[in-house]
Amino acid sequence: MAAETDIAPVIATRRDEAMGFFQRMVSKGLGWARKYSLFTYPFATACCGMEFMSVAASRYDIARFGAEFPRFSPRQADMLMVVGTINLKQAPILKRVYEQMCEPKWVVSFGVCASSGGFYDNYAVLQGIDRIIPVDVYIPGCPPRPEQVLDGLMLLQEKIGRQVHRVADKGEPNPTAAQHHLLASMNK
Ligand code: SF4
Question: If you write DSSP's letter for every residue of 102-146 in order, what string do you get?
Answer without folding.
Answer: PSS-EEEEESHHHHH-TT--STTB-S-GGGTS--SEEE-SSSPPH
